[in-house]
Give the backbone structure.
Amino acid sequence: MERKFRALGPFRAEYLPKGDWKGGLDFGGSTAINTLVLEYDRGRSIAHARILSTSAKTGEKHSIHFLCDKSVLMFWPWEDKAYRMDGASYLGMIDRLADELFKELDRLLPGIRREASVTENFLCLAMEPKPGPGREGRFQFAMGRSGHPTNWLREARNAQGSTTREEGETVTFDMPSRGKTLTVDRATGLLRRLRIRDYDGATREIELSSFTPLEKLPDVELPKIFQSQPVDPGQIMSQWKQQQGWVVMMIGEILERREDLEKAGKVAEADAILTRWAAQYADSLHALNVRSVARRAIRAELDRGIPLADLLKDAEGGAQKFAGDFAPLKGQLRAAIEARIMELAFDIETEAIERPVDSTLHGPLRELLRRSLDPGAVDALRIKTFGDRFESLYREELDSHRGV
């Protein structure tokens, strides 16, 4: 079904809600969803979701828009504002890294057949049930890069303890442990129905009511002014989590051909591929943490009444001051990142062992991870390659506060 979804051209799909939506998911003050309209052009990397909803406070009907154009996410109106989030610098880098490292591995281990890219456009339309009293469920719409074309097809493929039943033109996947059931169209791979069950037994669902192939997506009237938003750290770490699966693939190929690498004297080069990946991962952690501290510092200045225009005018001075103020925190941040690299090595080892791998390779696996994911070596490569760049990260964060 993944192959069939990839073959779809531009389309519009409308979904109708069923069940008890009141108090289940919150959309900027709206708790009743009337219709969900999805327009998607996979080839052009554009997705537009429009939620027609009813205000819980006033009863008025209005639309909430989510527009993904490549790595840019825009959503409006949200508390009467429009927001724009550009993840190109983060997500584009993560995507390119996977392809670059696989090409390097292909150079060391010729003869492995692989597609030109290990990633593809990824459409996410997801709901999660309420996990407990006083806690809301979750709705997520996004577009990114992954090893699967959609989140529902990925869930169907990877769900543990799920049952599958085929009914005419659809395939249904029951996932009791996740509190959800999803039904997929057999001919297109499109989501036909998604039902979630809360901790208390209440259910909600969306069901496909119409599907229309399009020659091109209609133009969307955008707000005149957007407020810039920082990239969601959860989205970035989700992309890295996806890449752990690709790293396990690399490790499997390295272990299977380890004798060839030893004879050719290329063991260190293979280790370096994994170390480079981990250094880039560590740099993402570093950048996210530094920008988070910078964000708080900038907001503190704004709360003191200093105009944003003044901060932008003296961006260099502000960046230098920030770098000096951050100096006492460098050791703590480095220790936290090195601890995370140790956890990462354990996670990757566990994932690799859980796959159907020859048990005789477990020892070489641990030795490979010990060499290539040594926290000190990873951090040293991070600093050598990227530097701490406290000043430039401050300027990036400051620049993100501009109106768009």
Summary: Residues 46 and 144 are 10 Å apart (CA to CA). DSSP finds twelve helices and 14 strands in the chain.
